[in-house]
Amino acid sequence: MIDHSLVISPLGAILFHLKQGFWLYAWPMMIGFVTILGYQALARIVAMGTAKWPAVFALASVVSMVSLFGWVTMVRGIGMIPLYGCGVGLASAMMSRVYAVTLALHPWLKMRVIRVIWRGDAAGISELKQALQARAAEGLETARAKV
Amino acid sequence: MKAKFLIALAFELTLRAQGLVPRPAPEFRIVEASGRTTFLSSYRGRVILLAFISTQCSHCQKASVVFQELAREFSGQLQVAEIAFDEGADTAAFEKRFGLTFPVGASSSDAAHSFLGIAAGTRLGTPQVVAIDRAGIIRAQSERLGTPMFQTPEYLRGLLKALLRKDPAR
Questions:
Q1: Residue B3 burial class via C-beta count within 10 angstroms: exposed 0-12, middle 13-18, buried 19 and up
Q2: What is the dihedral of CA B96, B70, A17, B61, to 10 degrees?
Q3: Min CA distance, A12 vs chain B (Å)?
Q4: Residues of B in contact with A3 (CB under 8 A)
Q5: Contact across the interface for A6 and B18, Cβ inside 8 Å
Q6: Was domain B19-165 assigned CATH 3.40.30.10?
Q7: Following CA atoms B60, B61, B63, B64 in sequence, which dihedral angle do they give, to the nearest 10 degrees?
Q8: Are B154 and A6 within 8 A, CB to CB?
Q9: Which chain B residue shows the shortest CA-CA distance from A9?
Q10: Which of B155, B159, B161 has the most A C-beta neighbours within 10 Å, making it the best mutation to test the interface with A?
């Protein structure tokens, strides 16, 4: 309650509402988005079966730490629920458009980086299929040689 | 049935009621841990930022740091004081822990409710911040369940500047 005859600069109130809006609405949405994005990307990298276990371990640790950090810092209340849901929905919708996530060897950096292959990327999908078939054949030959 | 509803409504409204602003600040005795007693009226002529707190409440602890910062910034024009109304509040330890240089007193919960114009025993959100102008008129007060905006330095700075601009005669 405030005496309305007082002429107060609106800056303080605007700043307060901006901060409150960020922590109550934008932050939960970002957390929902990043959590789903992280876990879905991780699941797809693991499903590819090409990543080495230390890379999978490191990625899984980072993703879980990021999501847990987000949940800890999140303002928990009724108001944050719809936008948290929006973040989760947005990330799920986006990931449904992704064909695969791989840890590809970067030609210049000479290190493995996350590569996203979208459903519309016919060349990328075909390249991935060939690589997987070649690897499967290579695995089969190795197995036969051992027998 | 109708009578029961009206009685319940009246009871609810009584519990929700709180002192309106602007209104003259009632007299209040601030008793510090050292035993030093100050009356609120002795601060007349300065803008007063009075907060009713619970020493265990984390919002009150954070707000106290903000009040200390404002007390330094508006030194000479502003008087900050806090009243702890939680049972067994150790105000001396509270002052020391947060480096507070303004008076921190203790009072009963009923006295705090009475000052705020709220029915005794009603649940309060802490801190309850009250801004009093130089003429001793309460110009701003937290809502019964607390007003988080009254704990931010940006907003309080604007409020205090507005109070300091106000002619004390009006």
A1: exposed
A2: 10
A3: 4
A4: 21-22, 137, 139-140
A5: no
A6: yes
A7: 110
A8: no
A9: B158
A10: B155
Nearest CA in chain A to B139: A3
d(CA B14, CA B84): 24
Residue carrying structure tokens 């197995």: A143
Confirm or reject contact between A6 and chain B (CB < 8 A). Answer: yes
Task: Enter the tokens of residue A24.
Answer: 């109550």
What is the model's pLDDT at position A139? Answer: 74
Distance CA A147, CA A139 (A): 13
The amino acid present at A3, given as its one-letter code, is D
Q: Grade residue B41 by pLDDT with cuts at 50, 70 and 90.
A: very high
Tens-digit pLDDT profile for residues A74-122: 877 888 899 999 999 999 999 999 998 888 888 888 888 888 999 999 9
Give the residue-averaged pLDDT of A22-42: 93
For the complex shown, is ipTM > 0.85? no
- Count Cβ atoms within 10 A of the Cβ of residue A131 and give its class: 0-12 exposed, 13-18 middle, 19 or more buried: middle
pTM, full prediction: 0.72
What phi and psi values does residue B161 have, to the nearest 5 degrees? -60, -40
Question: pLDDT tens across B51-94, in order?
Answer: 999 999 999 999 999 999 999 999 989 999 999 998 888 999 99
Longest dimension (CA), chain B: 59
Nearest residue on chain B to A7, alpha-carbon basis:
B162
What residue has token string 């009963």? B108
Closest of A30, A19, A128, A127 to residue A86, by C-alpha: A30
Amino acid at A53: W
How far is Cα A38 from Cα A63, in angstroms, rounded to an integer? 6
Nearest by CB to A1, which of B21, B155, B166?
B21
